[in-house]
Amino acid sequence: MLKAKLSASTIAVVIGGALPVLAQSPSPTPSPTPTHTEYVEVVATRIPEHAEEVPMSIEVITGEELRDWGGTDLRSALGLAAGLDVAAGGDAGPASFVPELWGLKELDAFLLVVDGIPWGGAFNPALTTMSLEDVERIEILRGAAPVMYGATSFVGVIHVVHRDAAAAKGNVSLSGGSYASGAVRFGARLPAWAGFESAVSVDLQRQGFKDDRTAFRRGQASWRNSRPLGSGQFRFDVYGTWLDQDPASPHPREGPALSAAVPIDANHNPADAFLNERRVALSAAYDRAVGKAGWSTSVAFTRSNQHQFRGFLVTLDPEAEAHGLREDIAVTDLYVDTHLSWSKSSRWKAVLGADHLHGEGEAKGADFDYVAPLDGSFAPVVAEPDDFFISIGDRREFSGLYAFGEWNPAPRWRFEAGARLNRTSEKREGENAEEPPPPPGVEEGSKRDDTRLSGSAAVSFTAFEHGSDRVRLFADYRNTFKPAAIDFGLEAGEGGILKPETANSFEVGLKSRLADNRLSLELAAFQMDFKNLVIAQAINGLPALANAGAERFKGFEAAAAWRMPGRVSARATYSFHDAEFRDFLTEFDGVPTQLAGKRLEMSARHLFSAGLLRAPGRGVLAGVQLNWVGSRFLNKRNTALADAYGTVSASLGWRAEKWEVRLDGRNLNDARDPVAESELGDAQYYRLNARRFDVTVARRF
Question: For residue 203, how many C-alpha atoms fall within 13 Å in the half-sphere facing its CB?
Answer without folding.
Answer: 19
